[in-house]
Structure formats: structure tokens, C-alpha cells
């Protein structure tokens, strides 16, 4: 199929005044009666409705049954020619039949553990009924559900409910991708929330029987999110009920359907015994994210799918702010930058690089990417930094006032910022339209009390974009004197030229610069800072992000030096020693500093420097550095390990989670020299999943984990979420030479229910997350992985396509590995009947 292009956008020629949907549920033959009330916007236009894999039972125009010659039915939809349509308002009524029990792709209406549920974003609604399935067609929905399930849910407010029948009316016009239906034997964990204007909202978390006692954290997180959106953005919830449903079979994390969010159960259910601190934080963040979509995504939606980052970038930015407010801004920023570099920079450096607002695609499901989400959020953060807090809030107020109820574009969004601030953002817009991560090179000089920072920006060509016009880059900078005092406080420099100098005068001595504070722009900063300067910043910088960044740069220097066979020095080890002794520093922050860069990020750094990464050498170097660090500080580390032992009952609050994170970071180091003794003891005594799983992960690293793994499996085999962890950790963390063999064995485990996305992802991400194990020189892991993608593709193309990104770095490596990955990709591409999803991915990966 030809790609869809942004420039081909045309408004839909009809408005849809109302939608009535009647569902009669049946696993093999659900009947959907749809009444669509249209009003023509253009004099003469054919009516096209999207529809896929639907059986059309009947069709009537204004009550008149149509004969088969009066319309055209194709694999992609239904068209009524202009000449049979009245020039006034009309109603089209169709009856279609679908088979939810046969829907393994989990798009449209499907079944999970006997429960009906839907996933309509991006283009799933067309698998439910014939409809203009595009986000700029917004309508009010009235839904009835007939079925023998005890709980029948849809969007909006419940207006009728009796045995086997429910009726839902959503007063807010919405695009079809926000439609949802759930039916099943579900239990609610319920609460109420009083909005800022005093309205009572019923809040429910719906789960399978038996899971009710793992919902309260999610419910409280929802209430915190609702309050936060009122306080920080002035946004109030707009229905009388807010439902969240947890399902086990789900292609992504969660979905923001109006008033009826559907979640992967992994991101709802939590108890101290089964969820880690990281899970708790993530659950809170995802609950917030989906809730925040109610305004940024639902009330104001996207005109077309090219504008996806309009809702996703903004909503990610909002959930990042929220988590920062709940749990601490410094550590949240570091986590977000780690994720951005680990996923988005990686994506941007390879064949899948694309702009946050792409201008063409074949399969939109392939564009729910780190670039759209995480880079999209960075762009919103840059706007916030450029305009300041008041300017940002004024722009957002105007956005909600001007565009409520509309389907918008990035142009609309930027215009709001321009109008409210009076600034010209035409150069800034390139962050949305251009792909690639700019490199920012810095040089400095000092003469007669004047300090000069000279910046140079460059962006490499990316697929389809050879020319790279200059970006508008906010660079937050502070200057420190030799005592560590801030002589120039944080200021935002705005770079718009290819080369640009900024001067600071009246300085007594040459300052130490702290550049790109708080990671003020998603760029790669290149600066030749020596190790003493980095150690100085790690100790003195007021900006916590740059303190951490200095430590990271030291670690990276050390690791790259080792891989390249250079002599190391003690600077990193000394700096970490100082940090370990600094009890005034936040434990969570110290934990982040102690975590060594991942093997994948070391490979990326080497590649960026023009070197060919050797996965085995990288693994060795990282292990050796961890061992050396542990040996150099073993007494101090052991003291911290003892001191951070919790005495209070478990809570996932940052006050407890921080020291726990430090304790586990310390454990991972000591584990390298104590033969797993501490990890074994902790595994035996742990009373919460954070420590139990942390200890297990450490044991896996030694390769001596067989009995712990068996014990863990015995205890948790009945718990699908904990078992996903079990599948993942034993592959991601094991010695690389064991990874493939373990993966092969695990695929034979009766608990490897590979059609369940969470389970498939756990195993495959475990293998691909073991950098040296996945990139074995003989290419055997590549073959195994590709075989499984091919097996999954006919069942669930979305997940297969998404998982193919394990190959996105193939151009980084040596000839041998490149050839092997290329030939696996070619083998996939040549598979007869390959899905559009996986076919687009392999073609883009091959370039
Ligand atoms: N907006 C939601 C995206 C989503 C999705 C997309 C494609 C296929 C399945 C999906 N499930 C959810 C989630 C979000 O960003 O909030
Ligand atoms: Zn989202």
C-alpha cells in the first residue's frame, strides 16, 4: 500500500451529528447496530466509511434498505456514491457481525479471560462497525449493551442498567478511537472524588475477582492525579463517573477512552508482595497519564494521526511534572533522561529515525514511538523553559479556551504559544518537523574577566531528510568558581545560529561551567571536560541533574577507556567514594549515580565516537569496573547495605523507596565480590517484591540462580504479573553466554503463553535486553528472535512489529553481526502474508 501523507489531508465532507450503537454480545457473533446521523458539509460528495474484517448484515438509508448494487464494499470499507445521498441531513443504519473470540490481534472488540473489551486507538473502531474512523470526526455516542455478563460498561454516564442490559450516554463529542466497551464478571474497588467546583465523581477500578485487594494504590493515584490537574492546570473532570478496567491481554500500557480507561493489568495491580517500588511509581505515572488525556487528547484531540505528539508529547510532559511533584524532581528528571537516551536517542541514531510529527506512514501503529512520546515531551519542556512558568501557564490556558472540543494540529498548538507570548516560534517548529538529535559542541575561553562559551550545532542527515536546518535550542547554564559557589546563576541561553558565542563578564577567575542544566534540550552535548572538572561538578553543582551527569560522564569515560584498552585512573572510583560518604545527598540520587551505564549505552557512545562496539568487550569492561568499584569501597558499601535496612512496614513512598534503591544499587556492586552471599540472604528474608526481586536479579548475574529461580517459580506460578518478571530477569541479567540457551528452554515452559503480549514481551525483551547475549557473534540469538517474530506476526502483528525494534541498532556493529541481522530482517521481509505492521518495520529497518 502507498504511504499516507500529511499533505493529503482533507476535511471529512460530512459532520456526524450523533451516533447510536447497540451491541448484542456473543463470542462468535456479536451484532452491532449503528445509527449514524450525518449532515453534508459539501454539495456533492460520496460517503466513505472505514470497515475491516466486518460481516455486513444489513444497511438502510433513512429507513430504506439498500440493495447490494447501491453501495460498494471493499476490504477497507463501504462507499455510498454521492448520487444516492440526499442533500440534507440523513441517517445511515447498519448491522454488522464480528467474532471477538477470534480476535487475537487485540484491536477492535476482543476477549481476554472471558471478558469483552475494546482497543480502538488508532484504527480499531473500523473493526467494530462501518464508520468514519478518523480523529477529526467527533460525535456524541449513545450506547446500549445486551449481554449476559454481570458488568456492562461504556463511555460517559450510565443512564439505564438492568439484568443483562446497560445504556451509556457520553455528552462529550469524541472521535471513535476513544470509544470503549467492557463486559465481564468484574469486581470494583470504588471511591469518590469531589471536584474543585464541588461535584461528586464516582471512581471505580474494575478487576477480575480475586484482584480487588491490589487496587487501592491505583485508586488513590487517580484521586491525586485529578486533584493535581485542577491545581496545576485548572482542569476539572467532566463526567459523574470515572472507570478504570484492568485487562491481562493488552498491546500497550493503557488507553484513555473517555470516562473508561482500559489498562494492562500490569499497570494497575499492586501489592507490596507482588510489585516493586519501580512498579508503584510507574503505575502512578500511567494512571496520571491516562487521566490527564481527558483534557489533552480527549477534550482537545488530534486532527489526524500525524499530529499524535500533540496529545502524547504534552500528556507525557504533564505526567512527568506530576511524578516530579509527587516523588522528587531531580531523580525523576534523571530517570526521564535515561529513558530518553536509551530509547529515543537510540531510535534517532538508526534507520527508524523520524520527526516527532512524521509526514508519512504506512501503519500508524508503528508510530507510537519514543520520538513521538518522549521527544514530544521534551519539546513541550523546552517551550516551558523558553516562556517561563507564567508564560507557559498563560499559553496552556489559551490552548484550552481556544481549542476545547476541537481536533487540532501542531500549528494550532504553536500559534497559542506565539499569540500568548508574542514570540516567533517558526524556527522552534523544526523540533516537530525534523528528525535527528542535534550535537552541540562547546568550547570556552577566559580573558580579562570575560568568560566566553562558544557553541556549535550540527544534526546528521536522517532517512529522507538530508538537509538539516538550524534548531532553536534553549541551553541552561550556570557558572561556578573554584570553591563551588555559583558566580553566575542559572540562565537560559537561546541558540539559533550554527555557531554562537555567549559572554559573561566581571569574573575574578576562570569559572567552571555547568552546561545544559536539567537537560534543557534533547541534544548530544560534546565537551572535552577533563576528569577533575567532572569530579568537581559531581561534588559542587547546584543543578542535581548536572551533578549526576558529571558522574555519568566519568563512568562513561572510564568504560570506553577500558573497552579501547587504555589505562584508567582513580577519578571515577574516588568520586563515587566521596558520594557514598556524603550522607546529605538524597539516597535515591546516590543510587542513580552508582548505577553504571548500560551496555547498550556504552555501545551507542562508542558508535557516536566512530568506533565499532564489541559487545563482549563492553560486557567485560562494565563487569570489571563494577568489581573494581566494589573492591575499592567494600567496607563503605557494606556499611551502607546494613544501614539502609528498613525497619518500618513496607511503603512505596519515596522516603522508603529511596534508601531501598540505594541498598539494591550497593548490593549489585557487592554481589560482584561476595559470590552472591548477600543477595542469597536477602532473597531468603525479603518480605516485599522490591527486595526479593532485587536480590533475585543480583543472583541471576552470578549465573548461580537455579535454586532461587525454582523457588520463585514455585511460589509465584499462579501470579501472571510476577511470572512475567521471572521470565524477564533470568534472561536480561544472566551471563551473556547463557542467555540464548535459557531463552530456548523457557519457550518450552508451559507458562510461556506466548499469545499473551506481556509474556511474549517479557521473554523476548529479556533476551534482547541482554546486550552481549543478544549480539552473540554467531548470530544465533538473532535467528531465534526472528523466528519468534514470524510466529507471532499472524496472531498479533502490532506486538510483533513493535518487538522488531530489537534490530534497530543493526548498523552500529561489525560487518559479521550486521550481515547476520540484515539477513534475518530480509528473511522476515520475504515471508509470504507478512502483516502490514511488520512489513513496514522491516522495510524501514533495512533502509
Ligand atoms: N493513547 C494510547 C495509545 C494506545 C495504543 C496505540 C496503538 C495500539 C494500542 C494502543 N493502546 C494504547 C496510550 C497512551 O498513550 O496513553
Ligand atoms: Zn498517552
From TrEMBL:
Cofactor (UniProt): Zn(2+)
- Where is the Peptidase M1 alanyl aminopeptidase Ig-like fold domain positioned along the sequence? 436-527
Which reaction equations make up its catalytic activity?
Release of an N-terminal amino acid, Xaa-|-Yaa- from a peptide, amide or arylamide. Xaa is preferably Ala, but may be most amino acids including Pro (slow action). When a terminal hydrophobic residue is followed by a prolyl residue, the two may be released as an intact Xaa-Pro dipeptide
Q: Which residues form the Aminopeptidase N-like N-terminal domain?
A: 39-178
UniProt-listed Gene3D superfamilies: 2.60.40.1840, 3.30.2010.30, Neutral Protease Domain 2 (1.10.390.10), Peptidase M1, alanyl aminopeptidase, C-terminal domain (1.25.50.10), tricorn interacting facor f3 domain (2.60.40.1730)
Q: Start and end of every Peptidase M1 alanyl aminopeptidase C-terminal domain?
A: 532-846
List its EC numbers.
3.4.11.2
Q: Which family does it belong to?
A: Belongs to the peptidase M1 family.
Please give the InterPro entries that the UniProt record associates with this protein. Answer: Aminopeptidase_N-like_N (IPR045357), Aminopeptidase_N-like_N_sf (IPR042097), PepN_Ig-like_sf (IPR038438), Peptidase_M1 (IPR001930), Peptidase_M1_dom (IPR014782), Peptidase_M1_pepN (IPR012779), Peptidase_M1_pepN_C (IPR024601), Peptidase_M1_pepN_C_sf (IPR037144)
Q: Give every Peptidase M1 membrane alanine aminopeptidase domain span.
A: 217-431
Name of protein: Aminopeptidase N
Q: Which UniProt keywords apply?
A: Aminopeptidase, Hydrolase, Metal-binding, Metalloprotease, Protease, Zinc
Q: Which GO terms label this protein's molecular function in UniProt?
A: aminopeptidase activity
Amino acid at each position: 500500500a502507498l504511504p499516507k501523507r500529511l499533505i493529503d489531508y482533507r476535511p471529512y465532507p460530512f459532520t456526524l451529528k450523533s451516533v447510536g450503537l447497540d451491541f448484542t454480545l456473543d463470542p462468535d457473533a456479536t451484532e452491532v447496530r449503528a445509527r449514524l446521523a450525518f449532515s453534508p458539509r459539501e454539495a456533492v460528495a460520496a460517503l466513505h466509511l472505514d470497515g475491516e474484517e466486518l460481516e455486513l448484515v444489513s444497511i438502510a438509508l433513512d429507513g430504506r434498505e439498500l440493495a447490494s448494487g447501491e453501495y460498494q464494499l471493499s476490504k477497507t470499507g463501504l462507499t455510498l456514491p454521492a448520487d444516492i445521498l440526499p442533500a440534507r441531513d440523513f441517517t445511515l443504519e447498519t448491522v454488522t457481525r464480528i467474532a471477538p473470540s477470534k480476535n487475537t490481534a487485540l484491536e477492535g472488540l476482543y476477549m481476554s479471560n472471558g471478558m469483552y473489551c475494546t482497543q480502538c486507538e488508532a484504527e480499531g473502531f473500523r473493526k467494530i462497525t462501518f464508520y468514519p474512523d478518523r480523529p477529526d470526526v467527533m460525535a456524541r455516542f449513545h450506547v446500549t449493551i445486551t449481554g449476559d455478563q454481570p458488568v456492562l460498561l461504556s463511555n460517559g454516564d450510565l443512564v439505564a442498567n438492568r439484568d443483562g442490559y446497560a445504556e451509556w450516554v457520553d455528552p462529550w463529542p469524541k472521535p471513535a478511537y476513544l470509544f470503549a466497551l467492557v463486559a465481564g464478571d468484574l469486581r470494583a474497588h470504588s471511591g469518590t472524588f469531589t471536584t474543585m467546583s464541588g461535584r461528586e465523581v464516582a471512581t471505580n477500578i474494575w478487576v477480575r475477582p480475586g484482584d480487588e485487594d491490589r487496587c487501592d494504590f491505583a485508586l488513590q493515584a487517580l484521586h491525586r492525579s485529578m486533584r493535581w490537574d485542577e491545581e496545576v492546570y485548572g482542569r476539572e473532570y467532566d463526567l459523574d463517573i470515572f472507570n478504570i478496567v484492568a485487562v491481562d491481554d493488552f498491546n500497550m500500557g493503557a488507553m484513555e477512552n473517555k470516562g473508561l480507561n482500559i489498562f494492562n493489568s500490569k499497570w494497575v495491580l499492586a501489592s507490596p508482595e507482588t510489585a516493586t517500588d519501580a512498579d508503584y511509581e510507574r503505575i502512578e505515572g500511567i494512571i496520571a497519564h491516562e487521566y490527564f488525556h481527558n483534557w489533552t487528547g480527549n477534550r482537545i484531540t488530534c486532527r489526524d494521526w500525524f499530529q499524535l505528539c500533540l496529545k502524547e508529547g504534552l500528556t507525557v510532559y504533564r505526567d512527568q511534572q506530576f511524578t516530579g511533584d509527587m516523588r522528587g524532581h531531580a531523580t525523576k528528571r534523571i530517570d526521564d533522561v535515561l529513558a530518553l537516551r536509551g530509547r529515543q536517542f537510540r531510535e534517532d541514531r538508526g534507520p527508524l529515525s523520524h520527526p516527532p510529527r512524521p509526514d508519512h506512514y504506512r501503519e500508524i501503529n508503528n508510530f507510537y514511538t519514543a520520538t513521538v512520546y518522549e521527544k514530544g515531551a521534551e519539546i513541550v519542556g523546552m517551550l516551558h523553559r523558553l516562556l517561563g512558568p507564567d508564560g507557559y501557564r498563560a499559553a496552556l490556558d489559551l490552548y484550552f479556551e481556544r481549542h476545547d472540543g476541537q481536533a487540532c494540529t501542531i500549528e494550532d498548538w504553536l500559534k497559542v504559544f506565539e499569540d500568548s507570548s508574542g514570540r516567533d516560534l517558526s524556527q522552534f517548529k523544526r523540533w516537530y518537523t525534523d528528525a535527528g538529535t542535534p550535537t552541540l559542541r562547546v568550547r570556552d575561553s577566559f580573558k580579562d574577566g570575560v568568560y566566553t562559551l562558544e557553541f556549535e550545532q550540527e544534526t546528521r542527515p536522517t532517512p529522507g531528510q538530508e538537509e538539516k536546518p538550524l534548531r532553536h535550542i534553549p541551553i541552561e547554564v550556570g557558572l561556578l568558581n573554584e570553591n563551588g559557589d555559583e558566580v553566575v546563576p542559572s540562565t537560559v541561553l537561546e541558540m539559533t545560529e550554527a555557531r554562537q558565542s555567549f559572554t559573561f563578564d566581571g569574573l575574578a577567575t576562570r569559572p567552571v561551567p555547568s552546561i545544559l542544566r536539567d537537560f534543557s534540550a534533547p541534544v548530544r552535548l560534546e565537551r572535552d571536560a577533563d576528569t577533575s572538572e567532572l569530579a568537581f561538578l559531581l561534588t559542587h553543582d547546584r543543578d542535581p541533574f548536572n551533578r549526576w551527569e558529571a558522574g555519568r560522564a566519568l563512568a562513561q569515560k572510564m568504560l570506553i577507556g577500558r573497552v579501547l584498552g587504555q589505562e584508567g585512573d582513580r577519578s571515577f572510583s574516588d568520586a563515587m567514594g566521596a558520594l557514598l560518604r556524603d550522607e546529605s545527598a538524597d539516597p535515591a540520587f546516590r543510587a542513580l549515580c552508582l548505577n553504571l551505564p548500560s551496555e547498550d549505552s556504552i555501545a551507542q557512545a562508542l558508535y557516536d565516537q566512530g568506533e565499532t562496539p564489541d559487545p563482549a568487550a563492553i560486557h567485560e569492561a562494565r563487569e570489571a569496573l563494577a568489581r573494581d568499584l566494589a573492591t575499592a569501597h567494600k567496607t563503605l558499601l557494606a556499611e551502607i547495605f546494613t544501614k539502609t535496612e528498613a525497619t518500618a512496614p513496607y511503603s512505596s513512598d519515596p522516603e522508603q523507596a529511596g534508601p531501598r534503591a540505594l541498598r539494591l544499587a550497593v548490593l549489585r556492586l557487592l554481589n560482584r565480590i561476595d559470590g552472591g552471599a548477600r543477595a542469597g540472604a536477602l532473597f531468603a528474608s525479603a518480605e516485599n517484591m522490591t527486595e526479593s526481586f532485587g536480590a533475585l536479579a543480583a543472583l541471576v548475574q552470578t549465573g548461580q540462580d537455579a535454586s532461587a529461580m525454582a523457588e520463585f517459580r514455585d511460589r509465584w506460578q499462579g501470579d501472571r504479573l510476577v511470572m512475567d518478571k521471572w521470565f524477564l530477569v533470568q534472561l536480561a541479567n544472566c551471563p551473556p553466554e547463557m542467555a540464548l540457551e535459557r531463552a530456548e528452554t523457557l519457550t518450552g515452559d508451559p507458562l510461556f503463553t506466548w499469545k499473551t503480549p506481556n509474556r511474549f514481551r517479557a521473554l523476548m525483551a529479556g533476551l534482547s535486553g541482554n546486550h552481549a547475549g543478544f549480539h552473540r557473534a554467531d548470530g544465533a540469538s538473532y535467528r531465534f528472535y526472528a523466528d519468534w517474530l514470524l510466529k507471532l506476526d499472524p496472531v498479533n502483528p502490532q506486538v510483533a512489529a513493535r518487538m522488531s525494534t530489537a534490530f534497530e541498532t543493526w548498523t552500529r556493529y561489525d560487518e559479521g553481526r550486521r550481515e547476520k541481522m540484515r539477513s534475518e530482517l530480509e528473511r522476515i521481509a520475504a515471508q509470504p502474508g507478512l502483516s502490514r505492521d511488520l512489513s513496514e518495520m522491516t522495510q524501514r529497518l533495512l533502509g
